[in-house]
């Protein structure tokens, strides 16, 4: 099973930027759909962004569209989430996730939490107003 480790979280002022990284080990993720989710206190974990394994197609939650960008570097076995124009409501623990069945199921990318089978430990992002 792939191991995912997030980094890059921290405290930032509103309208600031952060870049999250998700380093994978144990498996090559080039054939995996990859996603970012977040969970704020007292709320359910929600989809943020995803990137396909086949053509780097990307999907975003409406709340982050135009502000966040997901990307992947298969040579580094790493996925990134560039977050710009941050808002206090973006405060949450951010999780990286891998869908190892993507290529086998011919599923380029998914936004559904239950279809991801590997998760990182999360990284805290706090946006102050």
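-> sequence recovered:
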């Amino acid at each position: 099973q792939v191991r995912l480790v997030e980094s890059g979280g921290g405290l930032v002022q509103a309208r600031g930027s952060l870049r999250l990284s998700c380093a994978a080990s144990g498996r090559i993720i080039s054939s995996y759909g990859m996603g970012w989710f977040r969970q704020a206190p007292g709320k359910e974990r929600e989809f943020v962004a995803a990137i396909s394994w086949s053509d780097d197609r990307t999907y975003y939650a409406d709340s982050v569209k135009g502000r966040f960008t997901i990307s992947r570097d298969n040579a580094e076995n790493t996925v990134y989430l560039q977050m710009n124009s941050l808002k206090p409501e973006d405060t949450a623990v951010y999780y990286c996730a891998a869908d190892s069945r993507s290529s086998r199921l011919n599923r380029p990318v998914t936004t559904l939490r239950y279809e991801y089978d590997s998760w990182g430990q999360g990284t805290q992002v706090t946006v102050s107003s």
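The CA atoms of residues 11 and 69 lie 19 Å apart.
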